[in-house]
Amino acid sequence: MRKVSILVIGLFLFTAIYSYAQDDPNSWDFGKVKENVIQKHDFALKNGSSKVLNIKEINVSCGCTSAEVKDKTIPPQESTLVSVKFNPKNFKGDVQQFVYVNTDDVDNPVVRFIIKANVSK
């Protein structure tokens, strides 16, 4: 009975930790991926202010990553999608890349999104 209890607790903790890691809306973990399969994920970028938010440009931390935004002008309290593609070619093991969305918001001029993967051949 004790082994079953420990197993259940362990499973619960693993699930809670994994769920917490995926709960960050500005971070995405692709998990285990193959080197020759391009990965895609859409992030939601919300304008939580009372003013129109303008996206000036998007920068990425590596040529292996690209990002496009659906709408460069976001009305107050609305959202747009930031579509990110990651090409894992020539990577092996754990990888972390960044996408920087530069805006005209003086309080938060740069929004950073993080993608992660564990790449295998």
Q: Any overview of this molecule?
A:
By secondary structure, the chain is α+β, with helices and mostly antiparallel strands. The protein has a single domain, classed as Immunoglobulins (Immunoglobulin-like), CATH 2.60.40.10. It has one helix and eight strands. It has one helix spanning 2-22; strands spanning 27-34, 39-46, 53-60, 65-69, 73-74, 79-86, 93-103, 110-120. The strands form two sheets. It has a five-stranded mixed sheet, with no helix packed on it. The chain is elongated, with a radius of gyration of 18 Å. It starts with a helix and ends with a strand. The relative contact order is 0.25. Mean pLDDT is 88; it is low at 15-20.
Poorly predicted runs are 15-20
The portion of residues assigned to helices is: 10-25%
- General shape: elongated
CATH topology: Immunoglobulin-like
Beta-strand share of residues: over 45%
Counting DSSP E segments of at least 2 residues, the number of strands comes to 8
CATH class category label: Mainly Beta
**Order of strands across the biggest sheet?**
1-8-7-3-5
Largest sheet: 5 strands, mixed
Distance between the termini: 41 Å
What string, H for helix and E for strand, traces the elements in order?
HEEEEEEEE
CATH level 4 superfamily = Immunoglobulins
Q: Rg, please?
A: 18 Å
Class derived from helix and strand content: alpha+beta
